[in-house]
Amino acid sequence: EAGVVQSPRYKIIEKKQPVAFWCNPISGHNTLYWYLQNLGQGPELLIRYENEEAVDDSQLPKDRFSAERLKGVDSTLKIQPAELGDSAVYLCASSLGAGDTDTQYFGPGTRLTVL
Amino acid sequence: GENVEQHPSTLSVQEGDSAVIKCTYSDSASNYFPWYKQELGKGPQLIIDIRSNVGEKKDQRIAVTLNKTAKHFSLHITETQPEDSAVYFCAATYGNQFYFGTGTSLTVIP
Q: CA-based Rg of chain B, rounded to a whole angstrom?
């Protein structure tokens, strides 16, 4: 069974440029998560989707970040414009359900470098 | 929300020795505690988990213990091998959200 797929794996952009990340979750997983992972830190939740609905986006900086999951399957996370402090790894994860004990499976991440 | 603290931040052991990583959490309502292993350039991979109605769980060389009263849980790796070298993260769930510790970089010296 294929795992969570993310692309691109690496992205280097100049500040103020836009950037987008794509995620395809494990087939049949209804819940999708985007996390931010800074160097030497654990993942921090940005947004959680249940099917196509964003049910928790309280940590998403909405002035520059946006996300969508239009058909309840794959998802895109966008930053516009990017800032130097956005350099980090952006992880996507999925789970079968949305309960407390539903295991989350992570993709390989996209490493973003903003120059 | 939940606050998860993880210790130590770095750990070096000789091959064949045991490694123990400890985490504490703040909210007694948390009821699921997964452990993830992250290798360089890869996403976190689940290695073992434990639910609040269980005190201990073992899977070959890996075990996790949970003390709900003290609000702490630990990862135990026995007979460590060089391929166990990675960053390990604990997590606790609260309100349908995972809260991760800051990670432990484990180095197994051959």
A: 13
